[in-house]
Write a structure and sequence with these properties.
Distance between the termini: 40 Å
Helix content: 40-55%
Strand order of the largest sheet: 2-1-3-4-5-6
Number of helices: 10
Radius of gyration: 17 Å
Strand content: 5-15%
Order of helices and strands: EHEHEHEHEHEHHHHH
Structural class: alpha/beta
Number of strands: 6
């Protein structure tokens, strides 16, 4: 992958760059704030841009706003947001776009999994931190998610993390046929059309959840 890293903390910025370099990837450039990242990505056309959410000058949502602008101008560039806190508003706003991921920063410590996730996003896939997903799928009173069983909600969480049917089966120690049955029931209960494409299915589920949360 060709990677751009945007992180205001110098040690973390350098650590991320070293992590990608040691993994055999090309770090095109590193930036200390998000003010120029869209222009840099437009010029360099990296496979992935890694962005902290909270950066100068206000340390609120500079990263997520830059991510929206970046996906608007360079939709084929993968974007991975990193955050120390769970901020589901940013996740639901961007998750409907291909090539997007949102992880908590402690996931960086799991180097192999982190690099695999980054590659999936660069390839146009999606990935959400399990803690973020758990917040998204927590059923509110009167939510369609109330229709799901505990096991179906767990399958939905794993779908949202970007796992394939095979990956879900391995995680839950069940057969792929059982996973397929759970997904079929989930889509029916949420009134979502079934699709053979796992990535589009994940986006459809999370887009539906975003609509439900906005109405509530």
């Amino acid at each position: 992958m060709r990677v751009v890293i945007v992180e205001d903390q110098a040690l973390l910025r350098e650590g991320l760059a070293r992590l990608f370099t040691d993994g055999g990837h090309d770090v095109v450039t590193t930036l200390g704030d998000a003010s120029t990242v869209v222009d840099v990505a437009d010029r360099e056309r990296p496979d992935l841009v890694v962005l902290d959410i909270r950066m100068p000058p206000t340390y609120t949502d500079e990263g997520s706003r830059a991510a929206r602008d970046l996906k608007a101008r360079c939709p084929d560039v993968g974007v991975l947001l990193l955050s120390q806190h769970i901020e589901t508003t940013h996740a639901v706003d961007l998750v409907s776009r291909p090539g997007f991921g949102y992880l908590l920063k402690d996931r960086v410590l799991e180097v192999g999994d982190f690099l695999d996730t980054a590659q999936r996003i660069a390839d146009g896939g999606s990935a959400l931190d399990p803690k973020v997903v758990a917040r998204l799928v927590a059923p509110a009173t009167g939510s369609p998610l109330d229709r799901l069983s505990e096991r179906e909600r767990r399958v939905l969480e794993l779908m949202a993390e970007g796992l394939t049917n095979t990956g879900i089966a391995q995680r839950l120690v069940v057969s792929e046929r059982t996973v397929e049955a759970h997904i079929h029931h989930i889509l029916l209960k949420l009134d979502l059309p079934e699709s053979g494409d796992n990535h589009r299915r994940v986006l459809a589920v999370l887009t539906h959840l975003r609509a439900v949360r906005e109405r509530s």
